[in-house]
Amino acid sequence: MATKLRSFFKFPANAKKKTLYLITATGIAGLTHESVAAASSTNPNFALLSNDIVEKVRFGFHGIVRSSRAIYTISSNVVDYKYSLRGLELDSDEFYSKLSEVHLRSAKRLLKLCETNKGFYVKAGQFVAAMRQVPTEYSSTLASLQDKAVPYHFKAVKEVLVRNLGQDLSDLFLSFDEKPIAAASIAQVHRAMLKDHQEVAIKVQYPGLEKQMKIDITTMAFLSNATAWIFPEYRFAWMVSEFERSISRELDFIQEAKNSERTAKNFRKNKIVRVPRVNWELTTNQVLTMQFCSGHKVDDVGSLKEAGINPTKVAKALMEVFAEMVFVHGFVHGDPHPGNILVAPEGRSGFSLVLLDHGIYKELDEGFRLDYCQMWNALILLDSKKIQILGERFGVGKYSRYFPVIFTGRTIDSSWKRDVR
């Protein structure tokens, strides 16, 4: 086994050639930069074109490095699974114990990859952590990525702002805090004050994300397909295409603004829900300007209690809000983590729920929404015939008999059924 592992990590001739290509690319990038500096001193117009070329070379090389890290990490995981589980009897206690160990080691490697590559890799890690279908070792390990986004330097962010808004910041704002109040994997949020003294929160997309997404998604798809080829039992190849659809929607801030306004309209009669107003004059595909709203994170129980807010009432209100999204509106917030839901100490009930980050939404088909409502009604009443009919519509057939256990923790023959009726 040790011999095979050593041979796996040896560099064959073609690998040495690829390494030479990488070294050469690095040298070209450096020489190009020096050549541009020399030529620019005599021809300023040449500098504009050449700097763009240098930037493309750097971006391409950066993409190669990121992809190489990903390939190395996934290859290490594949080797770990192949050799650690070899010879173990399937379904044995030893097999499951060793499998859990490999899951954990592999998840830690993925976590390190996401933290190093940043950007879409962090977003992908968050996406995997939210999936209930993946092993617990992965979801629990990658969950730490929710709070590990590193903000960009303000100089890069300012360039995005000026390019999108068409004016210098001093012409648009009385004040602009260069230190972000929040940072995520694809954007960061700054606090500012408009000329009319309105406080706003400005969400700015990081530069170069669309180009970076193409490279990163291609790499992820290649690695996922390769893993499926090596391990036929691998069933997660669909996650890359689903992630690509999700992230493409999230990169469009115009769509996010529309989602925000639609949600505000849906909850216009609900006095406990607040959605920040969008400032359309200062909103583009890459910059979203909205009303600034303050509050405590919904899971910050200590701060809620200090503010005199009952956490139990907040939990009940939150449950009712999302139930209304699912059962009434059919338009559901797709990223409801604690950073996106604030509790403000104001409102008729002594608090209000502020819904943020409307980039990802799931719109339910009207037929599905109505059937889903009927299913829950049938589950509460333990109407076995209705559950079976709905199970056929959902495409699960005879397995619908397990719905009561999955969703309510009761069997179809529960004695509670007699008590209700």
From TrEMBL:
Extract one GO molecular function annotation from the record: ATP binding
Membrane spanning segments where?
none
- List, for all copies, the residue spans of the domain called Protein kinase: 175-421
> What PROSITE patterns does the annotation carry?
PROTEIN_KINASE_DOM
Annotated Pfam families: ABC1 (PF03109)
Q: Which family does it belong to?
A: Belongs to the protein kinase superfamily. ADCK protein kinase family.
Annotated PANTHER family: AARF DOMAIN CONTAINING KINASE 5, ABC1 FAMILY PROTEIN
Protein's recorded name: Protein kinase domain-containing protein
